[in-house]
Design a protein that fits this description.
The structure holds 2 protein chains of 2 kinds. Chain A is mostly helical. Helix content of chain A is 71%, strand content 0%. Chain A is built from 14 helices and no strands. A two-stranded antiparallel sheet of chain B has the order 1-2. In chain B, helix 2 crosses helix 13. The longest helix of chain B has 39 residues. The radius of gyration of chain B is 24 Å and the shape is globular. The chains are: A mainly alpha, B mainly alpha. Chains A and B meet through helix 1, helix 2, helix 3, helix 5 and helix 6 of A and helix 1, helix 3, helix 4, helix 5 and helix 7 of B.
Chain lengths: 320, 279
């Protein structure tokens, strides 16, 4: 299967092999394929994909080229040498405040992804082993909604709940205990709100793939529950868990709106620095800095995907 | 035997399972409850001013209208680009399928902020290098504030991985090649076999992809705000800075809308799933 940033329990996907109405009826009289018949669609198949390729070149290719070119050239607003090759943008983008922001982004993403993985697993396990089908469907649908519930609404919901004038804050006088939402920990709590459901969605198919016979076999060999998890279940789940962790990391890393609306500039994040730099909030001559920062971000995302895709393939092989 | 093995270990986790689900439910329900309460409570009891005031608020209809137009354009363009390509890839060589899969996964590598930065970089080429060429008009046209086509391009790109996955799941359950060959052997033309045979079989997947795209566009903030347009999410942000209660009310509403969209989606899928059993 392919990957998606926020997999949603697709009703269409659950009945994968039911074939849809009418398939079996029309399938039987299928004739041997003649060469003429096959050639017609093949020539046309490139034609049909052409618009997509053209769109891709324009909407994806051009910006990508712009980022790479911009990251390695002197900004047009610089005093001298506008347009000439330089690595200064990239050097600047990994030093000083920008380096702090990048590190802070990485730290936040890693921490929330780790917590999300550790918390999402027991929830998914509780749902998978539950006898109530309704509960399972409800939790998976809710996870689908919440995993997509990033951005602004999430920020406002948390401000209303745990912000300075939030309901819980007022109820328990949390401010007196040193709580503030507009901090690293506050942002983590908010991020987990969409990361945990994402983990539940990601790990549920893997947990479904754990066969009951494996557990029984382990028990017949007098393994305790702990030993079963330690030596049987976790090794099988490991690629899926790691893959889920990397996916969560990527989502947290790319998130922008929640942080922008919730904490403003109190927690430095690279996505915010890019937005700032794009709004002209940089020194003269550093107009291309935003593009260099974007390149940094893309490099991290490429690494994330390079780890995620093989892991996902591996877990798919085990648990099919 | 099966009873023996399953009874004793099953009992203990049940309590733990309940506890896990309870804690999770608390974590996920409290912010929703608190938001609703926050949006309806005022100094003297309960009031719905935040909700009723929305309709009259300045810019509400404009931004909502803009977002709906963008959403519609995005869904249409996305399906027009993706559906023919994916059907063709099923019919054509496996190599094409691989290319398509890689292509539709690529946007995941570029976070929205970075994509926006790149787009701004491209848009700057207009005034910088292309001032005297006909291309310049294209750049102006693409950025017109009444209907920023550049946002549609960005949204289609962001929705591409999601929509690809949804459509791919649908196509897996349908033997496209056999269906097309059967239709062609019965004398149907190419367009006819696609429109009356394949697309109806993909109804669920098409709906799924459309809803996911719709949800994405309704909530997208990054690209729009950095590029300086004001669709609905950006408007909410602006309102949130001045009227906190109203912004929370909008958040509650947007959550409700997402729920309704996904429930519709689930209902559409279920209807389709049950049909073969009844007929």
């Amino acid at each position: 299967m392919t990957t998606a940033p926020t997999p949603v329990p697709t009703p269409a996907a659950t009945d994968e092999f039911s074939g849809g109405p009418g398939v079996s009826g029309t399938a039987s009289p299928a004739p041997a394929r003649s060469h003429a018949k096959r050639r017609a669609p093949r020539g046309g198949s490139w034609m049909a994909t052409l618009p997509l390729f053209a769109f891709f070149v324009i909407a994806f290719g051009l910006p990508a080229v712009a980022i790479v070119i911009g990251a390695f050239t002197v900004s047009s607003d610089a005093e001298t040498g506008a347009g000439s090759f330089t690595t200064a943008n990239l050097t600047d983008s990994v030093s000083g405040a920008y380096w702090t922001a990048l590190l802070s982004s990485l730290k936040l993403s890693a921490l929330t992804a780790l917590i999300g993985t550790l918390v999402g697993l027991p929830i998914a396990q509780a749902v998978v082993t539950s006898r109530f089908r309704m509960l399972r469907e409800a939790v998976l649908t809710a996870s689908g909604v919440l995993a997509n519930f990033g951005g602004l609404p999430l920020a406002f919901a948390f401000v209303a709940t745990l912000g300075n004038a939030g309901e819980l804050t007022k109820l328990f006088h949390l401010t007196d205990h040193g709580w503030t939402l507009y901090s690293f920990s506050g942002l983590s709590v908010a991020y987990l709100y969409f990361l945990i459901p994402l983990m539940v969605l990601t790990i549920t198919p893997a947990l479904d793939g754990l066969r009951l016979q494996w557990r029984e076999a382990a028990q017949n060999n007098r393994a305790t529950g702990l030993q079963y998890w330690r030596f049987v279940a976790l090794p099988i789940l490991l690629p899926s868990l790691l893959g889920g962790f990397v996916l969560l990391f990527g989502s947290a890393f790319a998130a922008y709106a929640t942080a922008a609306a919730m904490v403003g500039a109190t927690v430095p994040l690279i996505s915010r620095q890019i937005a700032d730099a794009l709004s002209g909030n940089v020194l003269v001559g550093q107009g291309n800095l935003a593009l260099a920062l974007s390149l940094d971000m893309i490099i991290v995302a490429v690494v994330v995907m390079a780890i995620y895709l093989p892991l996902q393939r591996r877990s798919a092989r085990w648990l099919s | 035997m099966a009873q023996l093995t399953s009874r004793s270990p099953m009992r203990r986790p049940r309590l733990g399972r309940g506890l896990v689900l309870l804690v999770a439910a608390l974590y996920f329900l409290i912010p929703m409850g608190a938001s609703i309460w926050f949006s309806i409570s005022d100094n003297n009891g309960i009031g719905f001013q935040a909700y009723t005031g929305l309709l009259g608020a300045e810019g509400f209809t404009d931004s909502l209208w803009l977002t709906l137009k963008l959403a519609l354009a995005t869904v249409v363009l996305l399906l027009l680009l993706l559906v023919p390509a994916m059907i063709a890839a099923r019919l054509g060589s496996p190599r094409l399928r691989t290319i398509l899969e890689v292509l539709c996964t690529l946007p995941l590598v570029v976070p929205p902020v970075a994509l926006t930065a790149g787009m701004i970089g491209v848009l700057r080429w207009g005034p910088d290098y292309l001032m005297d060429t006909p291309f310049f008009q294209t750049f102006v046209f693409v950025q017109q504030p009444e209907f920023p086509i550049v946002l549609v391009l960005a949204y289609v790109l962001m929705a591409l991985p999601l929509a690809y996955r949804a459509l791919d799941a649908g196509l897996r359950s349908v033997d496209v090649r056999t269906l097309v060959e059967a239709a062609r052997n019965c004398g149907a033309s190419w367009p006819r076999s696609v429109f009356t045979v394949i697309l109806p079989n993909l109804r669920g997947a098409l709906l799924n992809a459309s809803f996911l795209t719709l949800a994405l566009v309704l909530g997208e903030f990054t690209a729009a705000s950095i590029l300086g347009y004001q669709p609905f999410p950006v408007w909410i942000y602006a309102v949130g800075n001045s009227q906190g209660q109203m912004s929370v009310a909008v958040s509650v509403l947007s959550l409700l809308i997402t729920w309704v969209l996904l429930l519709l989606l689930a209902a559409a899928g279920r209807e389709r799933r049950h049909k073969p059993a009844h007929s």
